[in-house]
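Risk register update: the risk that structure generation would not scale has been downgraded. Supporting records follow, first protein first.
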Amino acid sequence: MSPAAERPPLPREVRVLVAVAFFVALGFGIVAPALPVFARDFGVGKAAAGAVISVFAIMRIAFSLPAGKLLDQFGERLVMATGIGIVAVSSVLAGVAQSYTELIILRGAGGIGSAMFSLSALGLMIRMTGPTQRGRAMGMFQGGFLLGGITGPVLGGVIDEVSIRLPFFIYAGTLTAAGAIGLIQLRTTPLADRAQIAAAGRTKLRDAFRNPSYRAALAANFADSWGAIGVRSALIPLFVSDVLHRKPIWTGIGFLVVSALNGATLLPAGRFADNVGRKPLLVVGCLVSGLGIAVLGAEQNLGGYIIGLALLGLGSGLLDVAPGAIVGDLVEGRAGPVFAAYTMSSDIGSVGGPVVAGAIADASYGAAFFSTSGILGVAAAMALFAPETRGRSAQGPLQIGDQIGHGLDPDGQPNQVPGDLQS
């Protein structure tokens, strides 16, 4: 089979979701630097100011499973539009909040809407792509988030100088743009609405957990978020100051190294996942990320800092593709709770990483980095003993490869389903 035949073109919906992801991440990046500063204007302490950020992630975790059930009940289109709308409205209201209580309640509501958007976007991405497309689709989707996440904070720093409330309104504007793109461009997309998902059946969460490939995907997603999001964001700025004794610009340089190598890895990793398999990316991604963080703990100097973060960026790029593609390979029909547990694994890692690793770092930065490397090592071991999921059924009670639930053949083309299977 020729390379062109192995790599069928991606559906139009993938490009739409990449644009939606960019605008969502752009707005979040703009508002994020303003949140703790705005909270302090209400006379609260540092912990309370930090809670304004934490409550968003906590409500994402708390509402993920209910959002998964909504996804099964109403389909991706309605859940996505509603979720983006909730975040947009809560952002506008947060911009005019008159008290800390109002601000934290509205940020919590935004977390609920964010959970709805994330699940519906993931569900749509998986439903509209076949096994030889899914890795590339995941890479492009994560690239949209990455580009928006890099651009947003740069703009946010400038906008904050004009008004500390203005970022909230701009965030609402970028969300409105994302919602408009989704509603207009996806209006003719055959999404998984109620009749379709009822006919396709349901992937139960308990069956998914029995599958070693699903458990490995969750472990890798958790470990990646723990290290690449939580520990990096919480410890690197302090490590640069306390251990390296460098100016804050070196924190920015380190973050840029991670982001640049992460972005450069996404598309090649997606092609590899589609042409060769997901498992090698999962194993290597965990090992390379773990090695990078271990280098930070072992070589506490500027050279080790740059090398360690470069390895972390490479490994994280692989882990932005492989776990989501594996989950997509494993689901059939309705799978909202299965998607919810997957996104929760990331959120729990990004929330728990800073707290646990930060507490360990009070005694030793090296111990904090090595413990994080160990978590990634455990995920690598789970991935090593999990079956490959690309293009064949995984071993275990959850079967894959039958694309009836997606309405697509293995190359992502429309699949004609016999009438007796539709009833």
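Supporting record for the second protein:
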Amino acid sequence: MFRRFVRGILILGLLVAFAMPAWADDPVENGLTYLATQQQADGGFTNGFSEGSDLGTTCDVILAIVAAGRDPQAWRSAEGHSPLDYLQAQVTAGAANTPGLQAKVALALAAMGIDPAAWGAPDPLTALEAAYDPASGSFGSTLFDQALAMLALHHYSRPIPEQAVAYLLDNQTEDGAWALLGGTEADTGDTNTTALVIQALLAAGNDEALDEALAYLQRVQNQDGGFPYQNPSDYGTDTDANSTAYVLQALTAAGQSLDDWAPAGVDPRSALEALYDPASGAFFWQAAYATPNVLATAQAIPALAGYTFLNLPRLRAASSAPTPAPPVLPATGGVAPLWPGLALLLAAALGVGLALQFRRR
């Protein structure tokens, strides 16, 4: 009898041991744990390139947190500040001073289910609408920001001006893409702006330019299934996580089958996962730059979780208890050791089994 019990414990241990690596290598969960190490004292998040918090990056991280099913307000720095505290302070101080940043803040609030007109800081959506020029159809910034602005309006059920749609269509390049700074010249477009514009046009109910845009993306896709920022480019055309995440979201929003986007048997999702680093939990920007990257990680998580800028992640109902943030690891990152937990599990199981044996005797 006792031998059968010991054999059962060993089998349980083996099953758990085989299951643990799958849990340990979850890019979304471990990416979230890595991002927790990047939270600053004021509640915001660094972009990894300069000291202190960055407003745009913090909005990206909020979308990642919600995409993973967590509540950003439960993410508290050692000083007790949440990402929302940081957003409020920055918007109140006037840091959201471009249509792109105003739209990003509005999208982050939408994911959290917060009305920007009643959240205790200047309304970024009102500022965004005030920046719109009805004569040109432009929000006064890049096409990337134009698309973000239209998506922000969409998520608050505000009308998207027809002239804003026409402005994007008028700036489609001759080869089907969109360029950051606009214009129609071929070979000037980029995958990031194109991916975001596709989603903005879909939000406006317009798909007349979709086929040409998708054809452009397919032409510049790399054989590894991923995407560069631009092709041709003087700065290289290697796959990067940010571009691949944006395009993956556009393809998802457009209802594309990833089977049709696997030139050598590897689709964009798999190409993005290939840039995940299990040692740190983060994503690399490119395979050639094997360094954990905050922005790449923040932008990869929603894409892998199946969310887009057209279909934002949303917090659970307000009645649900907030989910605590993942534990903050040392600044060097890394995944929390798994064997101590496994040892405790096995020890507990063994203890219960021995107790039952003594009881029977």
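The first strand starts at residue 283 and ends at 286. On this basis the risk owner (M.S.) recommends closing the item.
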